[in-house]
Structure formats: C-alpha cells, structure tokens
Amino acid sequence: MNGALAPYAANWQSSKGRRHSEAPPNYRTEYQRDRDRIVHSAAFRRLEYKTQVFVNHEGDMFRTRLTHSVEVAQIARSISRILNLNEDLVEAIALAHDLGHTPFGHAGQDALNRCMADYGGFEHNLQSLRVVDELEERYAEFSGLNLTYESREGILKHCSPGRASELGELGQRFINKQQPSLEAQLANVADEIAYNNHDMDDGMRAGLITLEQLCEMPPFAEQYELVIGQYKALSERRAIHEVVRRMINCQVTDLIDTSRANIESASPENIDQVRHQPQPLIGFSDDMQRYNLELKRFLRTELYQHYRVRRMSTKADRIIRSLFEIFVDDPRLLPPDYNRKVSQMEKCEGETGRARVVADYIAGMTDRYAIGEFERLFNPSQLT
Ligand code: MG
After folding, report:
1. Which candidate, 371, 373, 363, places its Cα nearest to that of 105?
2. Does 144 share its domain with 265?
3. Which residue among 289, 333, 338, 363 sits deepest, i.e. has the most Cβ atoms within 10 Å of its Cβ?
4. Residue 188, exposed/middle/buried by CB under 10 A (0-12, 13-18, 19+)?
5. Ligand 1 centroid – CA 365 distance (Å)
C-alpha cells in the first residue's frame, strides 16, 4: 500500500532546513529526527497530565492531551499513507500540535489569553512553536528542538496577522493567504476528527451527553441503527464504541475521497504549488462538513458548556488568573531559573518580558502542578 512519495508531498531532501544548521542524520530522515526530538521532549511528557476536556484526576478512562495527540497521529498517518504524503512529517506535526497547551484545556487557554491581553495575548499554536523553537532546554548548541521548517509550519496552524509579521518567513503565509503543506493540512483535519469523536465518546462515558441526544443527528443515527440492527443484544457501551469507530471510518473515507479529487483537479506539481493554492486541498465533502459543524455545535452547547464542565472551567480560570497575578506582582516567588529569565527578559522587553516568562511558566504546567502551586501559594496551612 505504501507507494512512492507523491511529487506534491513534502520531501526532506528539499526541506527548507533548520534554523541552526546541523549535520544530516545517519540512518533517519530529517522528519524522523523531528518526530524523535518531539517524543523525547519534556513538553511531550507533560501532555499526559494535561486536560483535553476532563481534568486528568476526574478518571483514568478519559483522553488526555497525550492520548489525544497519539490518536491524531494514528488517523493522520493512515490517511497520509493512502495519499502518498510524507508520513514521518505528518506524525511529527500531529505529535507536536498541542505542546503549547496550557493546563485545564480551553478554559486555561482563555484565562491566560485574558491575563496577557496587555502583553500581546496568548495563542496556544504560537506557544507550541515557542516550545519547539525556544523553551525546551536539551541541546548543547541551541535552545528548543531546532525542528525543520516544514514541522514548524505545520505546528503553527493559526496565527493572528499581527503576530505573523514578527515570525519572518514562517508567518508570511498568514499575510499572503497561502496554504501550508498537505501534511500540515492533514494533521489539522485529523485533529478535528479525533477530538470530535473522542469528546463524544468521553462525554457519553461521563454521563454528560446521551445516546438519544446524539441520535438526533442523522449520520450518527444511521450508523447506530445499522449496529443495533446487526447486533441485537449488544450492550450500550459496546454499541457506542461500534458507532464511534464507524463514524471515524466514515469521516476518514470521506476525507480521503474528497482530498484525492481536490488534488487531482488542482494537480499541483510540487509543494510550492500546494502552498499557492487559493484553498486547502485536504478537506471533507460538503455533506460531511455540515455534519461536523452540527456535531461541533452540539458538543459546544451540551458538553463543553455542561454545568459540571463549567464548574471545573471556572476553577481553572481562578487558578490561572491568581497564579499570573501573584507571579507578575512578585517574580521572586518563581523558581530561581524562571526568576533569572524574568531579569533577562525585562532588560529588553520590560514588563511585557516579565509577563511572557510568567505565561511560559504557567502554560508549561500540568493540571495537577497548577493546582499544587495554587495550594502552596494561597492556602496558609500548606507547606511551601
Ligand atoms: Mg488537538
């Protein structure tokens, strides 16, 4: 099944390279090296204890950012192989795409963005790039992981035009309205397939949404009827799994067929022609796009806004805000290496530099570490 790389795929031999030049690897491709560096990074390990929707300590059965990233990589790699794209690059982007996420999922990200409003804001995609470009401290010759241009391009999914202008060549596509590689487009859509389906699965497992509610959406009801028709005595738990896996399969099949047709009609001859397309070429059919929108809307109102999820979100907001305020107010409360970074950053960027170091510290925390820091700083009976 694994054919030659398509001419429009990313090819490491014609990569735009790394920011710091390095000798080529002996037995791996450049994108395999990127993937390996991501897997060995501290930020990657911390994904295990960061919330997807449910806070990590709410139960062992729910997805975390780490298992989410592995699911994204699985979906993206399967599709990549069929489309003859670069599977190593797709995997690197998928595994790195959430490295910059704050603790407590979107509630944490929104809180930190509000805290940083006067200092340039906080965007998790930009933060993922910051992790791989600067924040990881592992290598003798450079800060960050020194990934290839193509991996960095894939990690930076979105970016406001203001911030894009500060990022040189990498930010240029947001200003010129160009597309990233097909591998980056694919990792992005695989993320959407993964979280829509596993949030639905986790939401049902937690008892926050029901099968009856989901059956109000025709594509879901259609698959459910097929499963129940074929396996009459199936337990609800197995029926849910069976429907979810079929839904993932429908979306993956739709994505492959639609993207293949898009690529055929645009017939790009190389990656540069992919970048100059007016629209992304990796995408769903109109029908599937409609279902995805409906599903997203449903999850937003029924799951992400569920009162039990909101109760956690409001706590997350208070924890992030309190930590930000106390550290910006007195950076001497930070661990010594972060306090030193504050002094360095303040020299060139003043108060903004101080706030950015505090945001880096908070964004790097796991859920439980953030809760621990909050306890140590605000609970008088807690030992520090
Ligand atoms: Mg994601």
Report:
1. 363
2. yes
3. 363
4. buried
5. 17
> How many Å lie between the centroid of ligand 1 and the Cα of residue 44?
13
Contact 341, 364 (CB under 8 A): no
> Which candidate, 195, 192, 251, places its Cα nearest to that of 220?
251
Please give the residue range of the domain that contains residue 132.
29-308
Using CA atoms of 197, 200, 206, 210 in order, give the dihedral in degrees to the nearest 10: -150
> What is the Å distance from ligand 1's center to 367 Cα?
17
Centroid of ligand 1 to alpha carbon of 106 (angstroms): 11
Q: How many of the other CB atoms lie within 10 Å of CB of 264?
A: 9
Identify whether residues 125 and 208 lie together within a single domain: yes
- What's the 185 CA to ligand 1 centre distance in angstroms? 13
- Residues 60 and 132 occupy one common structural domain: yes
Distance 195 CA to ligand 1 centre (A): 7
Q: Residue 100 class from Cβ within 10 Å (0-12 exposed, 13-18 middle, 19+ buried)?
A: buried
pLDDT digit string (tens) for 313-366?
Answer: 999 999 999 999 999 999 999 999 999 999 999 999 999 999 999 999 999 999
How far, in Å, is the centroid of ligand 1 from the Cα of 87? 18
Angle (CA) 244-248-252 rounded to 5° is 170
H helix intervals, the chain: 30-39, 42-46, 65-82, 87-96, 105-115, 124-130, 149-155, 161-164, 172-176, 182-205, 211-214, 218-230, 236-266, 271-275, 286-298, 307-329, 336-364, 367-378
* Same-domain pairing of 205 and 92: yes
Last residue of a domain, one of 276, 308, 340: 308
Do you know the residue count of the chain? 384
Q: Are residues 139 and 53 in the same domain?
A: yes
Quote the CA–CA distance of 158 and 170 in Å, as a whole number: 11
According to DSSP, residue 102 is labeled P
Dump pLDDT digits (tens) for 116-135: 999 999 999 999 999 999 99
**Residue 201 tokens, joined:** 């699965």
Question: Backbone phi, then psi, for 109, in 5-degree steps?
Answer: -65, -45
Cβ atoms < 10 Å from Cβ of 365? 23
Q: Are residues 229 and 365 in the same domain?
A: no
Decide if 151 contacts 17 (C-beta within 8 A).
Answer: no
pLDDT value of residue 2: 52
